[in-house]
Amino acid sequence: MSGLRIRASLLAEVIAHARADHPDEACGVIAGPAAQDSPERVIPMLNAARSPTFYEFESGELIRLHRALTAADERAVVIYHSHTATEAAPSPTDIAYAGDPAAHYLIVSTRDCHNGPGPVEVRSFRIVEGHVTEEPVHVLADPQPS
């Protein structure tokens, strides 16, 4: 099954972050094992730009994140952010800043619900050397506690 496979609870965390940061764009990563394409834990980041039209990871926070991921033998499987007034599709700026060809770029649009309970649009993309390919998002059930 190609595309992004993500547990429902992880996607819910990302959507909650996007709603909470509205009207500014939210951003963060979903980390997972370095050798796998398996998102396991959401790491919300600060949008240093504090902008409704642009996101930027704070440089010190990004350095700490990369060190922690390396130490845990993890990587950023998903890089996510929100769009607050437009569809969930990469902007020219998003494409220009996409630097990890192995990452899934997940975008959540809160244009219809803002920070309320209404619907959001969620889409995922692969961005490699400026070439954008949309991929399906497969929302998986969370494992049942044993």
Please supply descriptive tags for the structure shown above:
globular, single chain, 23% helix, two-stranded parallel ribbon, 34% strand, Cytidine Deaminase, domain 2, 146 residues, alpha/beta
What would you say this structure looks like, in words?
This protein has 146 residues and is α/β, with parallel strands linked by helices. It has a single domain (4-136), classed as 3-Layer(aba) Sandwich (Cytidine Deaminase, domain 2), CATH 3.40.140. It contains three helices and eight strands. It has helices spanning 8-21, 59-71, 92-97; strands spanning 4-7, 27-33, 41-45, 74-83, 104-109, 121-128, 131-135, 137-140. The longest helix is centred in the N-terminal third of the chain and has 14 residues, at 8-21. The chain is globular and about 35 Å long. The mean pLDDT is 96.
Structural class: alpha/beta
CATH domain topology? Cytidine Deaminase, domain 2
**Beta-strand content:** 25-35%
How are strands sequenced across the largest beta sheet? Answer: 3-2-4-5-6-7
Q: What's the name of the CATH homologous superfamily? A: Cytidine Deaminase, domain 2
